[in-house]
Amino acid sequence: MKIFNEMTGQKEEFVPIGDPVKMYVCGVTPYDNSHFGHAMSYIFFDVIRRYIKFSGFKLKYVQNVTDIDDKIINRANQRGISTSELTENFTASYFADMDALNIIRPDITPKATEEIPKIMEVVDRLIEKGYAYQTNDGSVYFRISKDEDYGKLSRRTLDMMMAGARIEIGEQKEHPMDFALWKAAKPGEPSWDSPWGKGRPGWHIECTAMSIKYLGEQIDIHGGGQDLVFPHHENEIAQSESYSGKVPFAKYWMHNGFLQIAEEKMSKSLGNMLTIKDVMARRSADAIRVFVLSSHYRSPLSFTWDGLESAEKGAERLSRAANRADSPDLSSDVLETVTYRREFVEAMDDDFNSAKAMGILFDLAREINQAADSGKNIENARNLLKQLAREVMGLRLEVQEHTAESIEAAPFIELLIRTRYELRQAKQYQMADQIRKTLADLGILLDDTPTGTTWKNKK
Fold first, then answer.
1. Structural domains present in the chain
2. Residues paired with residue 183 on neighbouring β-strands, in sequence order
Protein backbone atom coordinates (compact mmCIF):
# COMPACT_ATOMS: atom_id res chain seq x y z
CA MET A 1 0.00 0.00 0.00
CA LYS A 2 1.32 3.43 -0.94
CA ILE A 3 0.13 6.82 0.32
CA PHE A 4 0.88 10.26 -1.10
CA ASN A 5 2.56 12.13 1.74
CA GLU A 6 2.07 15.92 1.60
CA MET A 7 5.21 16.34 3.69
CA THR A 8 7.49 14.77 1.08
CA GLY A 9 5.36 15.41 -2.01
CA GLN A 10 5.52 11.80 -3.16
CA LYS A 11 3.95 8.39 -2.69
CA GLU A 12 5.48 6.31 0.08
CA GLU A 13 5.02 2.74 1.21
CA PHE A 14 2.64 2.57 4.14
CA VAL A 15 4.58 1.28 7.14
CA PRO A 16 2.75 2.07 10.41
CA ILE A 17 4.69 3.17 13.46
CA GLY A 18 3.04 0.47 15.55
CA ASP A 19 -0.19 -1.38 16.25
CA PRO A 20 -2.88 -0.11 15.93
CA VAL A 21 -2.61 2.39 13.09
CA LYS A 22 -3.25 5.84 14.59
CA MET A 23 -5.31 8.20 12.44
CA TYR A 24 -6.44 11.75 13.23
CA VAL A 25 -8.69 13.82 10.94
CA CYS A 26 -9.66 17.42 11.65
CA GLY A 27 -13.37 17.71 12.37
CA VAL A 28 -16.07 20.33 12.04
CA THR A 29 -16.70 23.70 13.62
CA PRO A 30 -20.44 23.36 14.38
CA TYR A 31 -21.93 26.80 13.86
CA ASP A 32 -24.14 25.93 10.87
CA ASN A 33 -25.48 22.93 8.97
CA SER A 34 -22.72 20.83 7.44
CA HIS A 35 -22.10 21.48 3.75
CA PHE A 36 -21.41 19.14 0.86
CA GLY A 37 -17.68 19.77 1.17
CA HIS A 38 -17.87 18.04 4.56
CA ALA A 39 -19.63 15.10 2.91
CA MET A 40 -16.88 14.88 0.30
CA SER A 41 -14.01 15.00 2.80
CA TYR A 42 -15.44 12.61 5.37
CA ILE A 43 -16.60 10.09 2.74
CA PHE A 44 -13.03 9.94 1.46
CA PHE A 45 -11.53 9.49 4.92
CA ASP A 46 -14.25 6.98 5.80
CA VAL A 47 -13.19 4.85 2.80
CA ILE A 48 -9.50 5.26 3.67
CA ARG A 49 -10.27 4.08 7.18
CA ARG A 50 -12.40 1.20 5.89
CA TYR A 51 -9.73 0.07 3.43
CA ILE A 52 -6.92 0.12 5.99
CA LYS A 53 -9.01 -2.19 8.18
CA PHE A 54 -10.02 -4.28 5.15
CA SER A 55 -6.28 -4.75 4.49
CA GLY A 56 -5.84 -6.39 7.89
CA PHE A 57 -4.64 -3.52 10.07
CA LYS A 58 -6.13 -2.53 13.40
CA LEU A 59 -6.92 1.19 13.49
CA LYS A 60 -7.78 3.85 16.06
CA TYR A 61 -9.52 6.88 14.58
CA VAL A 62 -9.94 10.26 16.27
CA GLN A 63 -11.83 13.23 14.85
CA ASN A 64 -12.27 16.40 16.90
CA VAL A 65 -15.08 18.93 17.20
CA THR A 66 -14.01 22.59 17.42
CA ASP A 67 -16.84 23.80 19.64
CA ILE A 68 -15.39 27.19 20.54
CA ASP A 69 -14.05 29.83 18.15
CA ASP A 70 -14.87 33.29 16.77
CA LYS A 71 -17.47 32.04 14.25
CA ILE A 72 -19.33 30.15 16.95
CA ILE A 73 -19.31 33.11 19.33
CA ASN A 74 -20.56 35.49 16.62
CA ARG A 75 -23.32 33.13 15.44
CA ALA A 76 -24.50 32.44 19.00
CA ASN A 77 -24.65 36.18 19.69
CA GLN A 78 -26.66 36.72 16.49
CA ARG A 79 -29.18 34.12 17.59
CA GLY A 80 -29.24 35.18 21.22
CA ILE A 81 -28.31 31.74 22.53
CA SER A 82 -25.30 30.28 24.35
CA THR A 83 -22.36 28.88 22.40
CA SER A 84 -22.97 25.47 23.98
CA GLU A 85 -26.59 25.38 22.79
CA LEU A 86 -25.51 26.36 19.28
CA THR A 87 -22.72 23.79 19.04
CA GLU A 88 -24.74 20.97 20.59
CA ASN A 89 -27.51 21.45 18.04
CA PHE A 90 -25.20 21.61 15.02
CA THR A 91 -22.96 18.79 16.27
CA ALA A 92 -26.04 16.56 16.52
CA SER A 93 -27.08 17.70 13.04
CA TYR A 94 -23.61 16.90 11.70
CA PHE A 95 -23.62 13.37 13.06
CA ALA A 96 -27.14 12.80 11.73
CA ASP A 97 -25.78 13.74 8.29
CA MET A 98 -22.80 11.42 8.70
CA ASP A 99 -25.02 8.54 9.80
CA ALA A 100 -27.31 9.11 6.82
CA LEU A 101 -24.27 8.97 4.52
CA ASN A 102 -23.22 5.65 6.12
CA ILE A 103 -19.99 7.17 7.45
CA ILE A 104 -18.70 5.17 10.40
CA ARG A 105 -18.41 7.32 13.53
CA PRO A 106 -14.89 7.97 14.88
CA ASP A 107 -13.63 5.82 17.74
CA ILE A 108 -13.20 9.02 19.76
CA THR A 109 -14.72 12.46 19.14
CA PRO A 110 -13.21 14.92 21.63
CA LYS A 111 -14.58 18.45 21.94
CA ALA A 112 -12.30 21.42 22.49
CA THR A 113 -14.29 22.71 25.49
CA GLU A 114 -13.96 19.32 27.21
CA GLU A 115 -10.18 19.17 26.77
CA ILE A 116 -9.17 22.47 28.39
CA PRO A 117 -6.91 20.85 31.07
CA LYS A 118 -4.85 19.00 28.43
CA ILE A 119 -4.68 22.12 26.26
CA MET A 120 -3.36 24.17 29.20
CA GLU A 121 -0.82 21.44 30.00
CA VAL A 122 0.56 21.57 26.44
CA VAL A 123 0.68 25.38 26.42
CA ASP A 124 2.44 25.45 29.80
CA ARG A 125 5.12 23.03 28.61
CA LEU A 126 5.71 25.05 25.44
CA ILE A 127 6.27 28.14 27.62
CA GLU A 128 8.70 26.21 29.84
CA LYS A 129 10.69 25.07 26.79
CA GLY A 130 10.87 28.59 25.36
CA TYR A 131 8.61 27.90 22.39
CA ALA A 132 5.81 30.13 23.67
CA TYR A 133 5.46 33.37 25.58
CA GLN A 134 2.79 35.21 27.57
CA THR A 135 1.82 38.79 26.76
CA ASN A 136 0.65 41.49 29.15
CA ASP A 137 -3.03 40.91 28.38
CA GLY A 138 -2.88 37.21 29.33
CA SER A 139 -2.62 35.75 25.83
CA VAL A 140 0.00 33.15 24.91
CA TYR A 141 1.69 32.96 21.49
CA PHE A 142 3.88 30.37 19.79
CA ARG A 143 7.35 31.74 19.01
CA ILE A 144 7.99 30.68 15.41
CA SER A 145 11.56 32.04 15.46
CA LYS A 146 12.39 29.22 17.89
CA ASP A 147 11.23 26.54 15.41
CA GLU A 148 13.96 26.24 12.77
CA ASP A 149 11.98 24.14 10.29
CA TYR A 150 8.67 25.99 10.54
CA GLY A 151 7.00 25.90 7.13
CA LYS A 152 8.22 22.44 6.09
CA LEU A 153 4.75 21.03 5.31
CA SER A 154 3.57 23.92 3.11
CA ARG A 155 7.15 24.49 1.85
CA ARG A 156 6.96 28.19 2.64
CA THR A 157 9.75 30.41 3.89
CA LEU A 158 9.17 33.11 6.48
CA ASP A 159 9.58 35.72 3.76
CA MET A 160 6.79 34.06 1.77
CA MET A 161 4.56 33.87 4.84
CA MET A 162 5.17 37.50 5.69
CA ALA A 163 3.36 38.68 2.54
CA GLY A 164 0.22 40.25 3.89
CA ALA A 165 0.97 39.32 7.49
CA ARG A 166 0.37 41.98 10.12
CA ILE A 167 -0.14 42.42 13.81
CA GLU A 168 -3.75 43.14 14.67
CA ILE A 169 -4.64 46.06 16.96
CA GLY A 170 -4.25 44.99 20.56
CA GLU A 171 -1.94 42.06 19.82
CA GLN A 172 1.46 41.98 21.49
CA LYS A 173 3.33 39.56 19.25
CA GLU A 174 7.10 39.34 18.99
CA HIS A 175 6.74 38.42 15.30
CA PRO A 176 3.76 38.93 12.95
CA MET A 177 3.61 35.18 12.19
CA ASP A 178 3.49 34.10 15.84
CA PHE A 179 0.09 32.46 16.45
CA ALA A 180 -2.17 32.29 19.47
CA LEU A 181 -2.14 29.26 21.74
CA TRP A 182 -4.33 30.92 24.36
CA LYS A 183 -6.53 33.97 23.81
CA ALA A 184 -7.19 36.39 26.65
CA ALA A 185 -10.87 36.70 27.54
CA LYS A 186 -12.98 39.43 25.98
CA PRO A 187 -16.18 40.81 27.56
CA GLY A 188 -19.17 38.57 26.95
CA GLU A 189 -17.14 35.64 25.55
CA PRO A 190 -16.90 32.16 27.10
CA SER A 191 -13.67 31.77 29.06
CA TRP A 192 -11.81 29.42 31.39
CA ASP A 193 -9.43 30.06 34.28
CA SER A 194 -5.79 29.42 33.41
CA PRO A 195 -2.30 30.20 34.76
CA TRP A 196 -2.28 33.20 32.39
CA GLY A 197 -5.71 34.53 33.35
CA LYS A 198 -9.18 33.90 31.95
CA GLY A 199 -9.30 33.02 28.29
CA ARG A 200 -9.93 30.31 25.71
CA PRO A 201 -7.77 28.10 23.48
CA GLY A 202 -6.57 29.13 20.06
CA TRP A 203 -7.69 27.10 17.07
CA HIS A 204 -4.50 25.12 16.37
CA ILE A 205 -3.60 24.01 19.89
CA GLU A 206 -6.71 21.89 20.42
CA CYS A 207 -5.74 19.36 17.73
CA THR A 208 -2.25 18.97 19.17
CA ALA A 209 -3.64 18.41 22.67
CA MET A 210 -6.34 15.95 21.54
CA SER A 211 -4.06 13.98 19.25
CA ILE A 212 -1.40 13.61 21.95
CA LYS A 213 -3.95 12.69 24.62
CA TYR A 214 -5.81 10.03 22.65
CA LEU A 215 -3.18 8.75 20.17
CA GLY A 216 0.20 9.58 21.67
CA GLU A 217 3.03 11.92 20.69
CA GLN A 218 3.47 10.38 17.23
CA ILE A 219 0.74 9.21 14.86
CA ASP A 220 0.58 7.47 11.49
CA ILE A 221 -1.94 9.48 9.46
CA HIS A 222 -3.17 13.05 9.84
CA GLY A 223 -5.89 14.11 7.43
CA GLY A 224 -7.98 17.09 6.41
CA GLY A 225 -8.79 19.37 3.50
CA GLN A 226 -6.12 21.09 1.40
CA ASP A 227 -7.18 24.41 2.91
CA LEU A 228 -5.77 23.20 6.27
CA VAL A 229 -2.19 22.69 5.08
CA PHE A 230 -1.37 26.27 6.05
CA PRO A 231 -1.64 27.56 8.64
CA HIS A 232 -3.52 24.92 10.65
CA HIS A 233 -1.49 21.79 9.99
CA GLU A 234 1.76 23.72 9.78
CA ASN A 235 1.08 25.11 13.24
CA GLU A 236 0.07 21.69 14.58
CA ILE A 237 3.45 20.30 13.53
CA ALA A 238 5.31 23.19 15.16
CA GLN A 239 3.40 22.83 18.44
CA SER A 240 3.45 19.05 18.63
CA GLU A 241 7.10 18.49 17.76
CA SER A 242 8.22 21.35 19.99
CA TYR A 243 6.15 19.91 22.85
CA SER A 244 7.37 16.31 22.57
CA GLY A 245 10.78 16.70 20.94
CA LYS A 246 9.80 13.80 18.66
CA VAL A 247 9.88 14.01 14.85
CA PRO A 248 7.71 13.41 12.94
CA PHE A 249 4.50 14.28 14.75
CA ALA A 250 2.59 12.58 11.91
CA LYS A 251 4.25 10.15 9.48
CA TYR A 252 1.79 10.65 6.59
CA TRP A 253 -0.06 13.88 5.84
CA MET A 254 -3.16 13.41 3.65
CA HIS A 255 -5.31 16.19 2.19
CA ASN A 256 -8.43 15.96 0.05
CA GLY A 257 -9.04 18.36 -2.85
CA PHE A 258 -11.52 21.22 -2.99
CA LEU A 259 -15.17 20.93 -3.90
CA GLN A 260 -16.00 23.20 -6.82
CA ILE A 261 -19.32 24.56 -8.04
CA ALA A 262 -19.28 26.21 -11.47
CA GLU A 263 -15.47 25.96 -11.37
CA GLU A 264 -15.30 27.96 -8.14
CA LYS A 265 -14.30 26.64 -4.75
CA MET A 266 -17.39 26.19 -2.61
CA SER A 267 -17.33 28.73 0.22
CA LYS A 268 -19.68 30.80 2.33
CA SER A 269 -18.05 34.02 1.13
CA LEU A 270 -19.00 33.19 -2.48
CA GLY A 271 -22.55 32.34 -1.46
CA ASN A 272 -22.47 28.97 -3.22
CA MET A 273 -22.84 26.67 -0.24
CA LEU A 274 -24.86 23.46 -0.53
CA THR A 275 -25.76 21.71 2.70
CA ILE A 276 -25.70 17.95 2.99
CA LYS A 277 -29.39 18.06 3.84
CA ASP A 278 -30.10 19.98 0.61
CA VAL A 279 -28.45 17.29 -1.47
CA MET A 280 -29.82 14.32 0.45
CA ALA A 281 -33.35 15.61 -0.02
CA ARG A 282 -32.87 14.89 -3.72
CA ARG A 283 -30.39 12.03 -3.92
CA SER A 284 -29.66 8.81 -2.03
CA ALA A 285 -26.63 8.24 0.18
CA ASP A 286 -25.32 5.62 -2.24
CA ALA A 287 -25.58 8.08 -5.13
CA ILE A 288 -23.62 10.68 -3.17
CA ARG A 289 -20.93 8.16 -2.27
CA VAL A 290 -20.66 6.93 -5.88
CA PHE A 291 -20.43 10.55 -7.07
CA VAL A 292 -17.67 11.44 -4.59
CA LEU A 293 -15.70 8.19 -4.89
CA SER A 294 -15.64 8.35 -8.69
CA SER A 295 -13.01 11.06 -8.20
CA HIS A 296 -9.57 10.69 -6.58
CA TYR A 297 -9.45 12.15 -3.08
CA ARG A 298 -6.60 14.54 -3.93
CA SER A 299 -8.34 15.93 -7.00
CA PRO A 300 -10.86 18.79 -7.07
CA LEU A 301 -14.45 17.59 -7.33
CA SER A 302 -16.89 19.54 -9.51
CA PHE A 303 -20.43 19.40 -8.19
CA THR A 304 -23.29 19.16 -10.70
CA TRP A 305 -26.83 17.87 -10.31
CA ASP A 306 -26.42 16.03 -13.61
CA GLY A 307 -23.38 14.27 -12.20
CA LEU A 308 -25.37 13.24 -9.14
CA GLU A 309 -28.20 11.96 -11.32
CA SER A 310 -25.73 9.78 -13.23
CA ALA A 311 -24.31 8.57 -9.92
CA GLU A 312 -27.82 7.64 -8.77
CA LYS A 313 -28.25 5.47 -11.85
CA GLY A 314 -24.80 3.97 -11.27
CA ALA A 315 -25.63 3.17 -7.65
CA GLU A 316 -28.82 1.49 -8.83
CA ARG A 317 -26.86 -0.63 -11.34
CA LEU A 318 -24.51 -1.80 -8.61
CA SER A 319 -27.40 -2.56 -6.26
CA ARG A 320 -29.30 -4.58 -8.86
CA ALA A 321 -26.22 -6.59 -9.82
CA ALA A 322 -25.35 -7.27 -6.18
CA ASN A 323 -28.90 -8.44 -5.49
CA ARG A 324 -29.42 -10.25 -8.79
CA ALA A 325 -31.08 -13.64 -8.53
CA ASP A 326 -29.47 -16.73 -10.02
CA SER A 327 -30.60 -17.83 -13.45
CA PRO A 328 -33.29 -20.56 -13.28
CA ASP A 329 -31.24 -22.74 -15.65
CA LEU A 330 -28.12 -22.41 -13.51
CA SER A 331 -25.06 -24.12 -14.98
CA SER A 332 -21.94 -25.29 -13.24
CA ASP A 333 -19.94 -22.64 -15.11
CA VAL A 334 -18.81 -20.20 -12.35
CA LEU A 335 -18.01 -16.55 -13.07
CA GLU A 336 -14.34 -15.94 -12.20
CA THR A 337 -13.68 -13.18 -9.62
CA VAL A 338 -9.94 -13.40 -8.83
CA THR A 339 -8.98 -10.77 -11.41
CA TYR A 340 -11.55 -8.27 -10.12
CA ARG A 341 -10.42 -8.62 -6.51
CA ARG A 342 -6.77 -8.23 -7.47
CA GLU A 343 -7.41 -5.16 -9.62
CA PHE A 344 -9.56 -3.56 -6.93
CA VAL A 345 -6.85 -4.08 -4.31
CA GLU A 346 -4.17 -2.77 -6.67
CA ALA A 347 -6.22 0.39 -7.26
CA MET A 348 -6.82 1.04 -3.58
CA ASP A 349 -3.23 0.21 -2.68
CA ASP A 350 -2.17 2.98 -5.07
CA ASP A 351 -2.95 5.94 -2.80
CA PHE A 352 -6.60 4.89 -2.35
CA ASN A 353 -7.55 5.36 -6.00
CA SER A 354 -11.29 5.10 -5.45
CA ALA A 355 -12.07 6.34 -8.97
CA LYS A 356 -10.31 3.36 -10.52
CA ALA A 357 -11.73 1.01 -7.89
CA MET A 358 -15.28 2.18 -8.62
CA GLY A 359 -14.70 1.53 -12.32
CA ILE A 360 -13.69 -2.03 -11.49
CA LEU A 361 -16.90 -2.51 -9.47
CA PHE A 362 -18.97 -1.30 -12.42
CA ASP A 363 -17.10 -3.72 -14.71
CA LEU A 364 -17.84 -6.54 -12.27
CA ALA A 365 -21.53 -5.56 -12.09
CA ARG A 366 -21.78 -5.59 -15.88
CA GLU A 367 -20.18 -9.03 -16.10
CA ILE A 368 -22.47 -10.36 -13.35
CA ASN A 369 -25.48 -9.33 -15.41
CA GLN A 370 -24.08 -10.81 -18.61
CA ALA A 371 -23.12 -14.04 -16.86
CA ALA A 372 -26.52 -14.35 -15.20
CA ASP A 373 -28.23 -13.85 -18.56
CA SER A 374 -26.17 -16.71 -19.99
CA GLY A 375 -26.96 -19.03 -17.07
CA LYS A 376 -23.58 -18.89 -15.29
CA ASN A 377 -23.20 -19.30 -11.54
CA ILE A 378 -22.78 -15.72 -10.23
CA GLU A 379 -22.87 -16.39 -6.47
CA ASN A 380 -19.15 -15.76 -5.79
CA ALA A 381 -19.09 -12.69 -8.02
CA ARG A 382 -22.22 -11.31 -6.42
CA ASN A 383 -20.75 -11.84 -2.94
CA LEU A 384 -17.50 -10.15 -3.94
CA LEU A 385 -19.36 -7.13 -5.29
CA LYS A 386 -21.33 -6.89 -2.06
CA GLN A 387 -18.19 -7.20 0.07
CA LEU A 388 -16.14 -4.59 -1.77
CA ALA A 389 -19.00 -2.13 -2.30
CA ARG A 390 -20.30 -2.37 1.27
CA GLU A 391 -17.22 -3.05 3.38
CA VAL A 392 -14.80 -0.72 1.59
CA MET A 393 -16.89 1.81 -0.37
CA GLY A 394 -19.60 2.06 2.27
CA LEU A 395 -22.55 1.54 -0.09
CA ARG A 396 -25.77 0.10 1.29
CA LEU A 397 -26.82 -1.47 -2.04
CA GLU A 398 -30.53 -1.16 -1.37
CA VAL A 399 -32.80 -1.81 -4.35
CA GLN A 400 -36.02 0.13 -4.89
CA GLU A 401 -38.53 -2.15 -6.59
CA HIS A 402 -40.70 -0.41 -9.18
CA THR A 403 -43.15 -1.60 -11.82
CA ALA A 404 -42.31 -1.34 -15.50
CA GLU A 405 -44.75 1.57 -15.80
CA SER A 406 -43.20 3.47 -12.90
CA ILE A 407 -39.68 2.87 -14.24
CA GLU A 408 -40.71 4.59 -17.46
CA ALA A 409 -42.22 7.41 -15.41
CA ALA A 410 -39.21 7.64 -13.08
CA PRO A 411 -37.72 10.87 -14.56
CA PHE A 412 -41.08 12.63 -14.13
CA ILE A 413 -41.53 11.31 -10.59
CA GLU A 414 -38.02 12.50 -9.67
CA LEU A 415 -38.85 15.91 -11.14
CA LEU A 416 -41.98 16.15 -8.99
CA ILE A 417 -40.02 15.09 -5.92
CA ARG A 418 -37.45 17.86 -6.57
CA THR A 419 -40.25 20.38 -7.15
CA ARG A 420 -41.91 19.31 -3.90
CA TYR A 421 -38.60 19.75 -2.06
CA GLU A 422 -38.17 23.26 -3.46
CA LEU A 423 -41.75 24.15 -2.49
CA ARG A 424 -41.12 22.96 1.06
CA GLN A 425 -37.93 25.01 1.22
CA ALA A 426 -40.03 28.01 0.19
CA LYS A 427 -42.58 27.10 2.89
CA GLN A 428 -45.24 26.42 0.24
CA TYR A 429 -46.44 23.41 2.20
CA GLN A 430 -49.95 23.22 0.74
CA MET A 431 -48.66 22.91 -2.83
CA ALA A 432 -46.00 20.41 -1.70
CA ASP A 433 -48.67 18.29 -0.01
CA GLN A 434 -50.75 18.39 -3.18
CA ILE A 435 -47.87 16.81 -5.12
CA ARG A 436 -47.67 13.99 -2.54
CA LYS A 437 -51.44 13.46 -2.75
CA THR A 438 -51.47 13.47 -6.55
CA LEU A 439 -48.67 10.89 -6.70
CA ALA A 440 -50.47 8.76 -4.10
CA ASP A 441 -53.60 8.84 -6.23
CA LEU A 442 -51.47 7.53 -9.09
CA GLY A 443 -50.13 4.71 -6.93
CA ILE A 444 -46.77 6.25 -6.00
CA LEU A 445 -45.95 6.52 -2.30
CA LEU A 446 -43.29 8.98 -1.06
CA ASP A 447 -41.13 8.30 1.98
CA ASP A 448 -39.22 11.22 3.54
CA THR A 449 -36.13 9.73 5.22
CA PRO A 450 -32.90 11.17 6.68
CA THR A 451 -31.21 10.21 3.40
CA GLY A 452 -33.78 12.00 1.22
CA THR A 453 -37.16 11.25 -0.34
CA THR A 454 -37.66 7.82 -1.88
CA TRP A 455 -40.67 6.44 -3.74
CA LYS A 456 -42.30 3.10 -4.33
CA ASN A 457 -45.46 1.63 -5.83
CA LYS A 458 -48.48 0.80 -3.71
CA LYS A 459 -48.73 -2.91 -3.14
1. 16-261 (3.40.50.620), 282-392 (1.20.120.640), 404-457 (no CATH)
2. 200
